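Table S2 (continued). Query chain:
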Amino acid sequence: GIENVIKEREIRLKDLEKTLHTVEKEKREIEKLEKIIRELKIFEKALTEVQSQLRKEFVTSVNHTMNKLWSTLYPYRDFEGIRLNIEEGDYVLQLFSRSGGWTNVEGFVSGGERSIACLALRIALALVLAPQLRIAFLDEPSHNLDSKSLSELAVTLRERVGEFLDQVILITHQEELIDAVTGKSYRLERDKVIDGVTKVELIE
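Corresponding output:
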């Protein structure tokens, strides 16, 4: 009868109240998540802006340091400046010519100019990233250089780099660069045919 109908309605009402409570709880969770997402988007935007600003400041510091190095490392006057430029999200090393324009180092300047430009970049990076160390590691800096450029690089390493660095560790297969060394030189040799041990010899 009527009592059964009332009882059923009460059960139904309780179920609806339970469902409503669950929905409200989930709604609060969704609102909480939406708030977190909004805050994360703000954080992401801030991080992107900070990253962009840090990149600009880093490149500015590297360029400032490279230009202080350039006049000492490069003995000629045809290129008066150097910079690391950002083009389409990529870094491009450029030299400033007397004619007033910037020239890409890669593919447009001589081997000697390229080696000194890359040396200036490596030293600048070392000084900006670890200013207290004043140490640079140069692994095969003479790649693809002719004999004149090799000689020029040796003079640069021997006579000009000491103003900026306390120590340079040079790794090379080029015998000509022995003249670049002002400290100790070691020759490392290994018989690859028999997979022999590496022998270390101090070059007097």
